[in-house]
């Protein structure tokens, strides 16, 4: 397989697997979800507002976390974490969606909020970082476009299907996220490559496209002696300039 295909495939599949987390449906059809749980119209609007407010704080926290873990495994953990919350959510809806068990209904709401922790910490911002990093510099714009195009395609697919699916198959619609999302988390963990800490100019090499790399960071050796020589030369030029300045001042005097 040509190297460019190896690079291009994770760009599309990463965003596709992440959109299988179900975040688009939760975000866009939040009021519908809370309505089916039996909450009032006021809470149907308040809960989505609180959900989005929480997302802001979690994304800010994520900016301090992403560079401490390998890219592919952090994404895999995020997708799998979302799947765990959706499994619990589906189980609660299957058992208590039409009941008066308030504790179970509140637990269903809690799962939608807990869902945000793995999504915002591991996926929301990192997906754009990762799909940008895996492309060589001269193709990075096209790679980002391919990844964002996949997000848009998944957006259309899930959001068009959601109202009809919730009306007809109800909680079983969550299985459409759980099954591919779980499979995707395994694929990302074992087969996607880590780009953390690698210079963007060298990323192409880990996909087998070594001809794209002109020089590697490990080959750049700035020794202490070279640094000392540079310092001495700089000091020499500065002293020479100061001497000429002093001589010129004396001549004018």
Judged by helices, strands and strand pairing, the structural class is mainly alpha
Gap from first CA to last CA: 78 Å
| Largest sheet report | none
Q: What's the total count of β strands?
A: 0
**Number of alpha- plus pi-helical segments:** 12
**Architecture of the largest domain, CATH level 2?**
Up-down Bundle
Question: Could you list the spans in which at least 5 consecutive residues all have pLDDT below 50?
Answer: 1-8
Mean pLDDT: 81
The fourth-level CATH homologous superfamily of the largest domain is MFS general substrate transporter like domains
Global geometry:
elongated
Order of helix and strand elements from N to C terminus: HHHHHHHHHHHH
- Rg, rounded, reads 27 Å
Number of domains: 2
CATH class of the largest domain: Mainly Alpha
The CATH topology of the largest domain is Growth Hormone, Chain: A
Determine the strand fraction and express it as a percent band: under 5%
Helical residue percent band: over 70%
Keywords: Membrane, Transmembrane, Transmembrane helix
Biased composition (Basic and acidic residues): 229-253
Protein name: Major facilitator superfamily (MFS) profile domain-containing protein
Main location: membrane
């Amino acid at each position: 397989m040509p190297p460019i295909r190896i690079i291009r495939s994770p760009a599309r599949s990463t965003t596709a697997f992440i959109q299988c987390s179900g975040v688009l449906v939760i975000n866009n059809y939040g009021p519908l979800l809370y309505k089916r749980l039996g909450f009032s119209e006021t809470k149907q609007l308040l809960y989505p507002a609180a959900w989005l407010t929480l997302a802001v704080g979690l994304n800010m926290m994520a900016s301090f976390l992403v560079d401490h873990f390998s890219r592919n495994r952090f994404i895999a953990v995020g997708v799998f974490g979302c799947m765990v919350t959706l499994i619990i959510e589906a189980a609660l809806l299957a058992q208590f969606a039409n009941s008066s068990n308030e504790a179970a209904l509140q637990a269903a709401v809690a799962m939608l909020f807990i869902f945000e922790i793995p999504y915002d910490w591991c996926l929301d911002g990192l997906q754009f970082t990762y799909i940008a990093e895996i492309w060589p510099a001269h193709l990075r714009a096209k790679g980002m476009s391919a990844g964002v195009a996949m997000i848009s395609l998944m957006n259309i697919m899930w959001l068009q299907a959601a109202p009809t699916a919730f009306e007809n198959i109800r909680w079983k619609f969550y299985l459409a996220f759980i099954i591919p999302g779980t499979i995707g988390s395994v694929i990302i963990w074992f087969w996607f490559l880590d780009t953390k800490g690698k210079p963007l100019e060298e990323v192409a090499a880990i996909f087998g496209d070594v001809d794209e790399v002109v020089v590697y960071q490990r080959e750049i050796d700035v020794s202490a002696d070279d640094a000392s020589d540079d310092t001495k030369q700089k000091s020499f030029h500065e002293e020479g300039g100061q001497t000429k300045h002093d001589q010129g001042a004396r001549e004018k005097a």
